[in-house]
Write the structure tokens for this entry.
Amino acid sequence: MLKIVTLLVLYFNNFGESTVLYAAVIYRHGDRTPVDTYPTDPWRNESLWPVKFGELTNIGKMQHYELGKWLRRRYVNLISEEFDPSTVYVRSTDVDRTLMSAQANLAGMYPPTAKSMWNQDIPWQPIPVHTIPENNDEVLAMKRKCKPYIEEKHKYINSKSYKERLSKYNDLMKYLTVNTLKKINDYEDIVSIYTTLKIETLYNFTLPPWTRKVFPEAMRDPACYSFQTATGTALMTRLMIGPLMQQIVNHMYDAVQEKPNHIKLSIYSGHDFTIGNILNGLGVYDGNCPEYTSTVFLELIGNGSDHYIRLSYRNSARIVEPYVLSLPNCGKLCPLQQFTKLYDNIISVDWEKECREGSPVSWFVEFYFILLLFLGILYAVSGILILKRRDKKLLRQSLASTQKRLFHQ
Amino acid sequence: MEYDTNDTWRRSSSPKFEDKKCKPLPRRSTTTAVIVLGLAVLSCLMGYCVLSETLPYESKTLRLVIILFRHGARAPVSSYKSDPFKNYQWPDGLGSLTNAGKVQLYELGRKYRMYYANFIPEEYQEKDVYIRSSDSSRCLMSAYTFLAGLYPPSERQIWHPELLWQPIPVHSLPRELDNVVAATKSCNSWKTMYQALLAENNADPKYAELFDSLSKYTNQSMRSILDVDFLFSTLQAQQEAGLKLPEWTRNVFPTKMKQPFMLSLALLSYNESLQRLHTGPLLNNIRTHLQEAVTHTNMDRALYIYSGHDVNLVSLMRALGHTDLLEPEYGASILLELHEEVEQDTFYIKLFYRNNTKVEVPMEIRIPFCTEPCTYEKFIEHLGTLIPTDWEGECQN
């Protein structure tokens, strides 16, 4: 008995020594209004909602404020009490609701101290949230154009297995199309309706009777499956979440090497799409749609000279403790080296190069084709013209010679 | 500042109803008349002094406002070799916005709230306003505190009972991609031209003596007006933070250093070719905002806010034809207003400047290339001459 107790004590002691050396926190924005409604939606009038469509509501601000307070407690030993721009970096997609969520979150995380209080009336301090337009953002918005990705996705959604799986929902999609008067063809269309209905339920808006048959049960699975389709193949995953994972792993190695002024906490403010892509890309998506403020944690744990990655997730708009996810073939505490090896296909991406490939090459090919075509047409046209002119000349000549002959006669 | 003595400025809002109050004169007896008259004049004067600064700007013709401001007070960005404060612990690191700087921009936001009370809706709504900032932390933070002053939450918008603040999105772009606000995106042809111009100015014999003495005192090579620029900013930030500058600075700071400092700010957009590349993309944005308002393609959005640096203000002023050397203080702002004369079916532009956050009312300044009132067409035509159609191409990137 004593042996077991000492073992347990040793175990916990050992565990106690392990510390978080770096953390990447990726969260979804808070409560919002629907982004789009459907033609037959009784609640499609924007004025029925507290804010414009797609914007963060007061509830959403409060949710993130609370999450920020909670994050502060979780990382009390990792980050300083005062905001330190050299060790904490906050990045958001360039969308109002994510920018605002990040600000509200930081308001909860960094209430002004006596020293940083700048305005006695407002217990808040400004903290920079960096962003970049979505069509330039391959890291967090994951919306920068990449031709090889588009081609791969095209192949993927036209594959037999994809089509077969989707065909299971043909009846559902037909039913939805008839009742919403919106063409419902794919998982993405289903999730759009599903999310809108879900938000309307949250706001206690009575849903039309037709929804009873399919919402939420029948719609949930295909709706939430939509978060798997952007990372449907290994190549898609590499091009989709590679840049973000690469950035995070690089920060981890900086922390391991104790580089001066290395980033200790990266905060990413994104969407359900972001969360879904990361979880599915790492092979741990459980099929449930990411809720408001759902958060993925990628933490670097140091224990002596050993370093591990711990992946945790919380999927609730309420403040709940995250649970540790078990990484496939690596477990709940995955050695950093092993993680890098296992996910090499994702982390080793050279996004700029790989996405530029294809495009300039094919552009060149297209250009060449057009040039050839143009030259061909030019050749043909000029040929015809020359021929015509020659014809005329010949005609004139023959006329002249006949006239001559006639006159001579 | 040169604009303080400029006789073309005038008060933008002279309340008209006070004139009426002054007119009726009681004539029963001379004494009462004198007293009443005296009181009336006095109250008129006082009323004018007080009200003209706090009264909202009355304008029925105003359609669009574009604001570009400089961030607030900051810690020095750099140090120099003999700097006695080299190891001074700035609370939030080098280049960071100080608490005083946060207050400055908050106050500026409140002043614009008051000034444009009849124009900017009291409640923040995404559709009305677009805010864009340089990606540098002090500019982002300045934008946030400015907005905290401009848009305190309305009752409906209060989301936290004890926190009278609301998050408002501020858009930005990483510095290496930003050719609009911070103008930090690399541009090869601009760089070549700028460096040649800088070398030419550095060779000016009038700076030789200053360079020599600064090199001696700082214990590092000071052979460029750009070096003077950095040193000037550092000394200024230290002085404002209440640090006692070394003895040698007395002979040169700010006096002799000021002209090369201001010239250094101006060099980035010194002539038209430089302005095209350095300021053209911002002018292009401004042109689009104005066009959208004039053609009613974007009816709601009537306020654009840009948060940048001193050089960005200088560049915009120069591009608008004001080539006197400038030193925009912390929180200095440039205002462009679009007005519509409905009866005559014409639009015109007004330009205002406020050199720091203490000035109560922005002063109107003449637009050099335009006769007053400066019509929209004339203004757009001038902008057009400075906007490259293919920025990347002209930059030879």
Q: What stands out?
A: Confidence is low (pLDDT under 50) at residues 1-26, 49-54 of chain B. Residues 30-54 of chain B form the longest helix (25 residues). DSSP finds 13 helices and seven strands in chain B. The CA atoms of residues 232 and 258 of chain B lie 8 Å apart.
